[in-house]
Specification:
By secondary structure, the chain is α+β, with helices and mostly antiparallel strands. 39% of the residues lie in helices and 32% in strands. It has 4 helices and 7 strands.
């Protein structure tokens, strides 16, 4: 009986440490990015004063890009440093707004606010899609 309690305790500590460790928040963001389905999302691309609803085809291709993002592509912006973005994506998921915007920062070309933290995303495909959206 003591052995079962000890094993349960050890697994509980491991789960707690993984969730709260240095990759905890980053892993949750990555899981969220990978789990968002184009069926559950409404997305708009914005640039200057114009906003454009993304088509189902655009959304499908964006979800593929989200699935290609790796944990090492995410960097927390602890100082909340950055620029005023000129363009980005506004995502509505489960009636909640999320914004992936131009960042042009050392930690990534794009940024997202997720669970009260700011993250840079280093993903060339996502950046190129946003930068070139109105040009195509």
């Amino acid at each position: 009986m003591k052995k079962i309690i000890s094993i349960t305790f050890i697994f509980s500590i491991i789960i707690l440490l993984v969730g709260c460790g240095p990759y905890g928040s980053k892993a949750k963001l990555l899981d969220w990015l990978h789990s968002v389905s184009h069926d559950d999302i409404e997305a708009y691309f914005w640039r200057n004063n114009a906003e454009h609803l993304l088509s189902s085809n655009d959304l499908q291709s964006r979800m593929i890009i989200f699935n290609d993002i790796k944990i090492e592509d995410l960097t927390e912006d602890k100082e909340l440093a950055g620029i005023t973005p000129e363009y980005g994506l506004r995502l509505i998921v489960n009636e909640q707004d999320y914004h992936i915007n131009q960042a042009d920062a050392p930690g990534g070309q794009s940024e997202i606010s997720f669970r009260n933290k700011q993250w840079w995303i280093e993903n060339t495909e996502l950046y190129d899609f946003m930068r070139n959206f109105f040009e195509n």
